[in-house]
Amino acid sequence: MLALGAVCAYATLCLLFYQGSWQLIFHPSRTIGATPASLNIPYEEIKFNSTETGKPQLAGWWIPAGDTARYPSRAILFLHDGHGSLSDTVSQLQALHALGINIFAFDYRGFGQSADQHPSEASMNQDADAALAYLTSTRHLPAHSIIVYGAGIGAAVAASTASRHAEVAAVVLENLSPPASTLFAADGRAKILPVRLLTSNRFDPAEILKALSTPKLFLERGTSPPTETAFHAAHDPRQLFQIAPEDQAKYLETMQRFLDEQFSQP
User: Fold this and answer.
1) Containing domain of residue 136, as a range?
2) Burial code of 228-259, b = ≥16 C-beta within 10 A, e = fewer?
3) What is the CATH number of the domain that holds 184?
4) In-domain check, residue 13
5) Which pLDDT score, from 0 to 100, does residue 27 have?
6) Which residues pair with 171 in a beta bridge?
7) 93-97 mean pLDDT
8) What angle do CA 171, 151, 64 make, to 5 degrees?
9) Which of 79, 133, 168, 191 is the least crowded, having the fewest Cβ atoms under 10 Å away?
10) pLDDT tens for residues 63-78?
11) Which of 24-38, 136-150, 212-226 has the highest mean pLDDT?
12) Which of 105, 237, 217 is nearest to 172 (CA)?
């Protein structure tokens, strides 16, 4: 009976970890407390990726560059870091908008006004594919005119997206998050549970980056050791820039130069 009880307790612990491990990686919010309009930036609310019943699964913002902008026919697909919601990205979207390029940012399922479900690596990759499809099919932007930009966990999703869509112009990886295994290791239960068998979330783009020939810009804003490590292991072409978090001018200069390099041809 004691042995059976121990097995049942261990199985229960495994089940609880399986059900709740996503909370060690993602910290979603359903609140939209700020929009680009809060900073006087014109934008359009977008609902897309509808189910067979016609219900949109994803919500995002299209921030137009304007006809006289530097790159009115190009776009950045922005993948946020899996914390909060789009509201927490408004300042960064303002900076990207200042570069003179269209911006499309959205909330993954489980975040903001997108469908209510637990996020996962698989669902985030699916959502990124749907966002790219929206840009190419609905906005009629050629994939080679789109840069995929990911921050934190979104950087791993960006690398994965670029590997499935080699036709995109480039990928920007900002402050790449540690692999999920590192986050799980910080949880005490990982010492006694078969963690790798209890979750499919990996968020480890190392192997992808070794083979990815798409132009890559690694941005280390502040301290982000995984970004530098991934850069050294990545396939060319690649660039790495280390920028102090408060040095917005250097950030904009770096991004502008990278955009110019990728879009030097009409």
Assistant:
1) 28-188+200-262
2) eebbeebeeebbbbebeeeeeeebeebbeebb
3) 3.40.50.1820
4) no
5) 86
6) 148, 216
7) 96
8) 70
9) 191
10) 999 888 999 999 999 9
11) 136-150
12) 217
- What residues does 170 pair with on adjacent strands? 147
> What's the total number of domains in the chain?
1
How far apart are alpha carbons 59 and 44 in whole angstroms?
11
| Closest among 81, 121, 73 to 100, alpha carbons compared | 73
Residues 106, 59: contact at Cβ < 8 Å?
yes
- How many whole angstroms separate alpha carbon 126 and alpha carbon 231? 25
The answer to whether the predicted template modeling score (pTM) of the entire model surpasses 0.85 is yes
* Residue at 4 is within a domain: no
Per residue in 161-212, pLDDT (tens digit) is: 999 999 999 999 999 998 866 666 656 555 555 555 546 667 899 999 999 9
Tell me whether the omega of the peptide bond preceding residue 237 falls within 30 degrees of 0, making it cis. yes
Strands 56-63 and 101-107: antiparallel
